[in-house]
Please model this.
Amino acid sequence: KYPYLSHIFIPIPEKYLQKIESNFELWKTYTPCRSKKKVTLLINMSGKINITISNALKSIFEKQSHLKNCFEELQVHFSNLEGIEDTYIKAPGLIFRSLFRQSDIFAREPSVIFWMEQDSVPIKKYWLDSLISEVNYPNLPFWIKGSLFRGNERLLPSNMLDAQMHTNGNGLYNIGCIKFRIFFIKDVEPYLDDSLDAFDSAIYKVIYSNITFYRQSLHLFQYTDIIQSTYFFPNSIENFNLMFPETFLIHLGSIK
Model:
């Protein structure tokens, strides 16, 4: 079966729960879709199971027509992290790694997920439709599709190819692909065990350290303008949209 967008995956610590609620309000302005999609909205809380939070999120979902009319369902999952693991730096990486091993995260089998942290926001309507179009045939198959860093170049190390070329973590991941799972578990996880790198940059360090894999597989790691990792909010949305008509979401990189 050809890959398809199955989940919008939002990983978030409990202390940023209000950010999710404010993002949902923003989605009223930039409605996700024209018509309902078979896509699950999955909010992954980093901490311990909290039925009160789960019920509150489900209540918001049921009451917000722009959510209920676009997504097939809302799923809330808890990763049960605590202490130093449940921090902005550690939690995303641990949650991302769990996607390749823990079948209980997803209520239904995942194909392609869009990893959407709390500082990723839409700037155009119908961004969910556009993500679906970015995945569907006749697009070429991929393992990862996302944005280069598009912010101030002075923030990039000038002598590190992997830092300059890696796609930001907020992007599309074909975790339904067995070969991608094997690559991540076999090659990326051992590197992460001994590294402080974020998962997104670690993937590219592994790629560029293996010239044989690089030559055979780099085509599976693709760039797209549908999301831009800008690290800033445009002064003028109108001008930004004129400059980048294919961009529907931006990653602000501003929530710590």
